[in-house]
Fold this protein.
Amino acid sequence: MSLFDTLFTLEAVFVLSGLALAAIAALSFVDRANPSRFGTGAFWLLLAITFALGSVLPSWATGALVLAMVALDGFGLVRHGDYGEPTHAERAASATRLGNRILLPVLTIPVLTYGASLALAPLELDPNRVVYASLGYASIVAAVVALLVTRSRPRVLLDEGRRLADAVGAIVILPQLLAALGAVFRAAGVGDVIAKGVAAIVPTDSLFLVVVVCCTGIAAFTFILGNSFATFPLMMAGVGVPMLVVPFGADPALVGLMVLTAASCGTLCTPMAANFNIVPAALFEMRSPYGVIRFQAPFAAAMLVAHILMLWAFIAFGR
Amino acid sequence: MELLKLVGVLIIIVGFALRLRVTAVVVVAGIVTGLVAGMPFVGTDAAPGIVDTLGRSFANQRIITLFVLSLPAIGLSERFGLQDRARELIQRIRAATAGRLQLVFQLLRYAIGALGIRLGSGHVALGRPLILPMALGAERLDPERPDDADAVDDVKASTGAAENYGNFFGQNLFFGAAGVALVVTTLGDMGYTIDPRRVALWTIPVATSAAIIGAVQFWWLDRRLARARSTADQSATEAES
């Protein structure tokens, strides 16, 4: 049990990620085809250090490493290299040769992650630990499966990891940076200022107008802060409960859920929610980092209208 | 001066609008906001400063970036034809189009969410390795052909969108989801006792609306792709004659 308690932890998985990132850094340093191999290598090495040692380094040191990574990116020193990619024909030939076996590694990850979550459910561990430790080890099993299926050398595996890491590039740290910005915003009390502003413009006599301002307000508020989990409690305390639940006798479960998903309409439109909107654009190698947001904007607008109409109708006719 | 605290928000909006380097914009916004709020540059345990708050939060949020560990397996599979295989499989289904596939993906994401299955980022686990090559394959689009570039980006965007629609509007169908817990605890703090199953129940009309609006948008995508294809075919025919 003690071995399990040591290895099946977020900490262990962070250290493994740090090692993978360090390997990517080492390969970057020796990639002469990369016009900025030292800058690129340094970026991945610094990220490797924050991953492996993030829990033992003093916070100011991690902060300094983060500033250094941002400086490397700011000066354009994180670039693409050469990954010895096969030609179109070679790839198609191996696809034919391997058939459905080539799907195996990728399917391993969700199947093992879910399987482990189910198997460990009776232990009642912290759910984040179960999901992400499972995900980490499932990724490693998938890498081994990929090596066996393709009969490649480990060097090729790491080069391919580096190819995808470079495709995402320095954007990879943006979600963590934005979470850190959220922490500074919280410490400075930015959310309270905005919530007070929204609460001040709400008319209180018309149910429909309160619903409009509440849904639009949380969407706009979430657009600015990028995280509905940060805006939701402020909006419920400022508007949802005192102006919908109390005066109109609305079902608090209804108001709570609809305000939360109305916030998601803002999430769909904001670069601040980088892990949902900006990282995928980089991962899919799109030309514009805002391509996913542009596609989602009309959907988000329609969903916001749907939220307003549903919340209003369920309160007005549900009494 | 309360409003001065919003200067960071302003920096973000201006920086993103001017397409400056986003990582740098975010850090500058954080530093300026911290200085305006009177935080020291480097603080102590008693009085947190800007750089240590940045570092602490960055370290605490490492799980968002854990997906890097799955990149080698995905990359190696791609090298040996994963995307080619995904294309082939979808091309056997004659009715498959990019839009229809995205709607199926959104509904599949609902099912995953309703069962309480968490996979980390669906963009990494499903979007890039499987859904995207299938959607491109269904439309016979080649990401390396310059003429296809606009349509390819359209399909890429739709793959990201379908994952987000399914994730955001489907996950609370499961009464044990984090969003449901947030609703229950927030209202609990304000003195309301809520049954999480009731919150999950109210998710049904939201998920249904998102499926209908998604279906319309994905149908629209198919129409856009078909139009672009017929224009391309026409100009190709004209070039030959």
Notes: Chain A has a mean pLDDT of 89. Chain A is about 75% helix and 0% strand. Residues 189-318 of chain A form one domain. Residues 291-318 of chain A form the longest helix (28 residues).
